[in-house]
Design brief:
Length: about 180
Amino acid sequence: MNKADVTKNSELAEELFEVDTLVELDPKSLEFYRDDAGFVSLKYQGSEYFNVRLTRLLPFYSKTTYISVAYDNEDREFKEIGVIKDMSEMSPEQFELVNDYLEYKYYMPRITKVYSIKDNSRGFIFVDLDTTSGRKTICVRDWYSNFRLLTDKYLYALDVDGNKYFCEDINTLDKKSLAVLEIYI
């Protein structure tokens, strides 16, 4: 191996190491706040990060554990600061601020009843349903990928506008809803 290959492999190894490293943040040292523009920012271990992005790494299974905290640096490159392993270890004020951000970001009306599903034979289905946000008809493209059970009972739907809906346990739906869903799940 020549010197250029060694240098290239060394740079690649450093890059892979950075990507593969999970940095756990100390929940008690996090100081999230809303800046003047209303964005969530963070002071942590002597550094300040503006307009941070909080992301649930396991969005369907855990709402308060494994929360990624990231930002865009001066070169507009995505940089992860680290991961909050469990939000319950944060102060009540910090927990509330982060939880409010995440609930807004991951807002998903819960499906409470399914009236009908119509297939237009072009890859779209139209689902007439009741949700915690009212009755609506949603259009789902590629229903096999965007209208599905993620576990044996958790139903997830993504409509063509990017809105997400869920039913945590389809067994809580009435018998007519289950009969309508039967062919599609």
